[in-house]
Amino acid sequence: MVLPNSFYARKDVVKIARELLGKVLVTTFDGALTSGMIVEVEAYAGATDKASHAYGNRRTTRTEVMYMQGGAAYVYLCYGIHHLFNVVTNVQDVPHAILIRAIEPLEGIDAMLERRGKEKLTPALTAGPGAMSQALGIYTAHTGTSLQGHIRIEDRGIKIPKKYIVAATRVGVAYAMDDALRPYRFYIKDNRFVSKGKGL
DNA sequence: CAGCAGATTGACT
DNA sequence: GTCAATCTGCTGC
After folding, report:
1. Residue A12 needs a FRET pair 20 to 30 A away by CA distance; which of A6, A43, A67, A104 works?
2. Residue nearest to nucleotide C9 (CA to C1')
């Protein structure tokens, strides 16, 4: 079942992030269906979170999408090269979002290998937010689109036992000072498609 | 308007 | 381990 807008419209972004583990991210672009199970996410709590682009309710061309009603895609360019995919949560004008950092490939692996210019399935194919977006064919033009269309997240009944869910600090947000310490990163223990990050 | 840093990745020493 | 690639947006001249 495709997760409905009501799933994203709730107010607890950290809880939603945790629930996304084990769900399946699916894209259908240029005739190819590609999908993978979400194994790593990070919550960004908008106005009150220094690590968020929308800290202090800052509005720019780029962050405008985060103010939409939950259930939209927020895709932005990092370091001028990498497309990072987030899902917008909460109600309109509350800029919460969840960064999907890594998936375990399920369907359309050939198409993902082609998009990434790779021969063999390794964790490098989808472990890491930039790599994952490229594998799924997601880029900045998709920002603001609904998660009920070519990009969607499905519940296929996979349940991750609590003891396999690890909470940690987020990757690459040291500049956020005290907010960098928030345990807003969640990943599935022992899954080899979880990204390594840099300074963990 | 120039300069810099960033929710990263991959190529090279 | 080090570093370049290169867009968006902030800071300061």
Report:
1. A104
2. A60
Give the Cα separation of A38 and A56 in Å (integer): 29
Q: Of all residues in chain A, what percent carry a pLDDT higher than 70?
A: 98
User: What average pLDDT does the structure give for chain A?
Assistant: 96
Distance A127 CA to B10 C1' (A): 14
| pLDDT at A48 > cutoff 60 | yes
Question: How many helices, marked H, and strands, marked E, lie in chain A?
Answer: 4, 8
Q: Evaluate if the CB of A6 falls below 7 Å from strand C.
A: no
Phi and psi at residue A47, in whole multiples of 5°?
Answer: -55, -35
Which pair of structure tokens corresponds to residue A49? Answer: 């979170």
| pTM of the predicted model as reported, rounded to 2 decimal places | 0.95
All structural domains of chain A:
5-188 (3.10.300.10)
Torsion angles phi and psi, residue A38, rounded to 5: -70, 125
pLDDT for A140-180, tens place per residue?
999 999 999 999 999 999 999 999 999 999 999 999 999 99
Distance A6 CA to B5 C1' (A): 37
Q: Does any strand B atom come closer than 7 Å to the Cβ of A52? A: yes
A198 has a pLDDT exceeding 80: no
Q: A141 beta carbon < 7 A from strand C?
A: no
